[in-house]
Specification:
alpha/beta, twelve-stranded antiparallel β-sheet, 27 helices, 29% strand, globular
Length: 1008
């Protein structure tokens, strides 16, 4: 170069780098800019061996130029880490001859690095893109406030500088007198690492520079708050493209599942150190990066975990460490002397240490995509011996699992870039992965099948042949606008077509709206049925006709066979089609009209046009709808492999000629309005499930006299009985009893409180009387009649459930216990806080409950889940087994045939099935009740286990562990030898209810 570079300092560390002539004279702005015009020659590396801009750099530069021809609005450029963002910025400045540019960066380290690069235009001189005639830009590093005496010098430096490099905090705090002069000259603002724009300081600076040309460079188009970076994305160079071009290497992902938080850090470190050891053994120059969420956590990780690996010279780097020490450690990492570095946010954004290849992520990280790009980049010019990067994290920790899932949602390329190495992969995940792997993609590859979720529905067509004209879809859909994903092995065909339509609110021809049509076809070869799920029925029909010319639609009554084997089917809506005197008419039945609609459908000439209902199948709640025109649907959203299995099950039913659809309707459940309570014994009462299972404090019970509020989980409804035609029941809050009655009349229902202080319910800031709350959230009461019929009443509506014929109790469901040998007083139910050894509960805990359980929990008291809850963890099969034991004292001195000994305990057993669908809530309920017991009495409910195990269970459930429930009744007052028919009816009713709903097994511990 013909010119000298001189660096001067203003205040504390603010540096101005300028070129002078041989005599030390400053050069004019015009001369500097003109030198760029004369000396810049653009080169592009289009093939191996050529020097110049990489293709993503040249593409980004061209996009910026094209954007500026038509617009000055903010523009976003997405370039993955390692593709050369910095040189793209410098090439933009010199080629477009921008006299004044402000570059905003997120950290002090990056500020220094960009300043050093910008003042020499990075590696552009090495690429022969700048001749010796070029004058380097006057570059100012703004890092600290100046005294009033230096303010003039600061203003002069900012006005002289071609490039100013700073952080948002410094720009935001710049004195207004300085800023006003600087912004007058400023032409372009570049936000580097623009995913930070969600933070207040970044947003404030952007507001300050609106009206200037703004470029936003980022490695991910998503901000740290998960939203997309605003500003038009004018160039997006995908990760998959970067990998294909060799700028980015795949990352080996080692997810671990350690549910014990206290062991999580050690397990992550153990795997990470193992990978480091193996890589170093292969001669690779890798360094391990351990990431923590805070300085305190980084120090803790270093002291407790990584400091012991002295052979790798571990260091910890964060802003809480003195800068001299920090720089020393940083140099040790760069030189390869320190092989482990524990940090917070100092790496992953522009810091040039290509040897950082192993990332141990200990805490949730908002910029995880950036970190992964950072460790995955392949620095070809570094000269280091580098292999693939590794990511190690504990996906059993909820926040870390969420980070990984968000990664996949933001960019489908991560599916091909993250190679998963896991010995703990779940079978379902493997099946999904293999299913997805069998698809061939056409047209574009940026749609991730694993992220596709669809509303579960099908229309069915019989197909006598397996011959498929796969390419015939092109006769129906626009091949240029359609993504096709073909899985020939499983006969699944996915098509996503982009649709362009005119907007309804303007006649302007160039304003269009874009949408997508979605089609999935599945040929079930076993049943000879084609299933289609589509957003456009017309195109769907034409797709089936084109690809399967011999297919014929399945319509009519056979579609309703899909309702077969749904237990306790409650029909919500029923449409009937009639054709009296040649005219077609439609009638829709809902609510309490359903019963008459069913009768009409069975006995008249009406045809079922559509139906929607709820019930239980395979131990799960389901909702299902079906239409005469051949459609079956459910209110579920699931992945495609689930849909194909569901379609196969539906297809088998529809083809089964032995299924009588009238019988299905006749045996379904309906609602009827009642004017008084039914005959029978009320044995079960509970509030709506969302209230029974809620652990929230948004709804609380308030006792005015005590000026104290109680959560609903410390209360329960009990002892329902009919008194003078009204339903009387108790409401218990800890030891306090309140008595209410429900009244039903000709047209409505109401509640009144007849004993206890007036009870109030607090709903946030609002308060209502308990009787008004009960009207809004009416309890459900079950009555049992002498023949085993169960009538369920809620509000002033009833549902009649007839007993199934031929049902018998399993011989192993009734277990005789010799209670006298256990020293039990059969009239003493609870062990209490004093743990009475002659109580039924104490004997059950120590003699009936499986002692190998991980948790044995005494939950006795108002709001209990059960008297005893035991939980067993089966790690091998990834299963958690809950066993709920309901104990009840005997009404007599000796075991006998008292049906009164069964009503309440059977009701409790039935009530407790609500937890089958609310597993996280049952665990949280146990945590809340343990904390409450500890707070009130300083005692524990745990007979075995602790809160740590419960918290671990929550993570297991979220990680996909299966859960299983077992329910037992413990009533020593019942003699198995003396059981009467009425006793059998109540036991059978409970047993049937458990099996019909969630497929649960009832066991009864009685006396001989």
């Amino acid at each position: 170069m013909r010119y000298k570079t001189v660096v001067s300092t203003i205040g504390r560390g603010n540096k101005l780098s300028r070129c002078t002539d041989s005599k030390g004279n400053k050069l004019s702005q015009a001369k500097i800019i003109d030198s760029w015009r004369l000396s810049y020659q653009e080169r592009v590396s289009r093939r191996e061996g050529e020097i110049g801009l990489r293709s993503p750099q040249f593409g980004a530069l061209s996009a910026i130029r094209a954007h500026w021809v038509t617009s000055n609005s903010p523009a976003t450029i997405v370039l993955p880490t390692g593709t050369g963002k910095s040189e793209t910025m410098y090439a933009t400045i010199i080629s477009e001859r921008i006299a004044s540019t402000l570059i905003i960066v997120p950290s002090n380290l990056l500020r220094e690095q960009i300043y050093e690069g910008a003042r020499h235009f990075g590696i552009l001189p090495k690429l022969d893109m700048i001749s010796n005639e070029s004058i380097y830009p006057t570059t100012f590093l703004y890092k600290s406030k100046v005294e009033a005496t230096d303010e003039k010098a600061l203003i002069a430096a900012l006005q002289e500088a071609n490039i100013v490099v700073s952080t948002p905090g410094m720009i935001k705090k710049m004195p207004s007198s300085v800023w006003e002069k600087f912004i007058q000259k400023l032409e372009v603002v570049i936000f580097d690492e623009a995913h930070h724009l969600a933070s207040p300081d970044w947003g404030a600076v952007k507001e300050m520079v609106l009206g200037k040309k703004i470029l936003q460079f980022t490695a991910t188009p998503f901000r740290n708050d998960g939203k997309k970076v605003d500003g038009k994305i004018i160039f997006n160079y995908g990760l998959a493209m970067a990998q294909k071009a060799g700028y980015f290497k795949p990352i080996e992902f080692y997810p671990i599942q350690e549910f014990d938080e206290q062991k999580s850090d050690e397990e992550i470190a153990k795997i990470a150190i193992q990978q480091l050891k193996e890589d170093l053994g292969k001669g690779l120059e890798h360094v391990l990066l351990a990431r923590a969420k805070s300085r305190k956590r980084a120090d803790e990780l270093y002291e407790k975990v990584y400091s012991q690996y002295t052979e790798y010279n571990p260091v910890v780097i964060h802003t809480g460490i003195a800068s001299t020490q920090r720089n020393k450690y940083l140099q040790e990492v760069k030189d390869g002397n320190a092989k482990i570095v524990v940090c917070v946010d100092m790496f992953g954004e522009g810091i040039d240490i290509p040897t950082l290849k192993i990332a141990a992520i200990h805490d949730k990280y908002k910029s995880l995509p950036i970190t992964l790009q950072f460790i995955g980049r392949f620095a070809r010019t570094s000269g280091n011996n580098l292999g693939n990067a590794k990511l190690i994290t504990n996906v059993a920790m909820d926040d870390l699992k969420d980070s990984i899932e968000e990664l996949y949602r933001q960019d489908s390329d991560w599916n091909s870039l993250l190679n998963i190495h896991s010995h703990q992969a779940i079978d379902k995940e493997i099946e999904l992965s293999e299913f997805i792997g069998r698809f061939e993609k056409g047209h574009v590859t940026d749609i991730d099948i694993s992220q596709l979720k669809m509303k579960i529905s099908t229309r069915m067509f019989r197909c006598p042949t397996e011959r498929t004209f796969v390419d015939a879809w092109k006769l129906v859909l626009d091949p240029d606008r359609t993504t096709s994903m073909i899985n020939e092995e499983d006969s699944v065909y996915i098509f996503i077509e982009e649709i362009e339509t005119k907007v309804v609110w303007s006649d302007q021809k160039d304003i269009m709206q874009y949408d997508y049509d979605f089609f999935v076809l599945f040929l079930d070869k076993e049943n000879g049925i084609i299933h289609i799920n589509e957003t456009d029925t017309g195109k769907g029909n034409r797709l089936v006709e084109s690809m399967f010319p011999q297919a014929t639609a399945i319509k009519g009554d056979s579609v309703y066979r899909s309702l077969n084997e749904i237990n306790r089917l409650m029909i919500g809506t029923l449409g009937l089609k009639q054709q009296p005197s040649g005219r077609i008419s439609f009638r829709m039945f809902a609510g309490t009209d359903i019963k008459s609609g069913i009768s009409e459908a069975i006995v008249s000439n009406s045809t079922k046009s559509n139906l929607f209902g709820y019930g239980y199948q395979g131990g799960e709640r389901i909702s299902i709808g079906c239409s005469y025109r051949g459609k079956v649907w459910m209110r579920w959203v699931e992945r495609i492999n689930f849909w194909t299995e569901w379609c196969q099950d539906i297809g088998k039913k529809v083809l089964d000629d032995t299924i009588d659809t009238n019988s299905i309707l006749n045996n379904s459940l309906t609602l009827e309005v009642i004017k008084d309570f039914p005959e029978g014994v009320p044995y079960k009462i509970l509030l709506p499930e969302p209230i029974e299972t809620s652990n929230s404090f948004t709804k609380q019970l308030y006792i005015t006299k005590e000026e104290r509020a109680y959560p609903f989980y410390q209360s329960e409804l009990s002892n329902p009985s009919l008194v003078d035609g009204n339903l009387r029941f108790e409401f218990l809050i800890n030891e306090r009893k309140f008595i209410f009655e429900q009244i039903i009349n000709e047209s409505s229902y109401s509640f009144k409180q007849i004993e206890g202080e007036k009870l109030i319910v607090k709903l946030g800031k609002k308060s209502v009387q308990m009787i008004d709350f009960l009207y809004e959230y009416s309890p459900e009461i079950s009555f049992i009649q002498h023949d085993g019929t169960v009538i369920v009443v809620q509000e002033n509506l009833k549902t009649v459930i007839k007993p199934k014929s031929g049902i018998k109790l399993s011989s192993d469901a009734l277990i005789a216990v010799n209670w006298p040998d256990l020293g039990v007083n059969i009239k003493s139910e609870s062990q209490g806080r004093g743990r009475k050894i002659d109580s039924i509960q104490y004997a059950t805990i120590h003699n009936i409950v499986d002692q190998s359980s991980d948790i044995i929990f005494d939950d006795d008291g108002s709001g209990e889940i059960a008297d005893i809850v035991s939980i067993k963890i089966d790690m091998q099969h990834r299963k958690i087994i809950f066993h709920l034991y309901h104990c009840k004292y005997s009404h007599g001195e000796h075991p006998g045939s008292r049906v009164s000994d069964l009503y309440e305990v059977c009701g409790q057993a039935e009530k407790s099935i609500v937890w089958n669908d609310n597993v996280l809530e049952i665990i949280q309920r146990m945590i809340e009740r343990e904390n409450s017991r500890q707070k009130s009495y300083g005692e524990t409910r745990f007979e075995k286990g602790n809160l740590q195990t419960l918290n671990m269970l929550k993570k297991m459930v979220r990680a996909g562990y299966e859960t299983e429930f077992e329910i037992s009744i413990v009533q020593p007052g019942v003699s198995i030898l003396a059981i009467t028919n009425s006793m059998k009816q109540i036991i059978l009713a409970t047993d049937t209810y458990l099996k019909d709903t969630f497929g649960l097994r009832l066991t009864c511990f009685f006396s001989n």
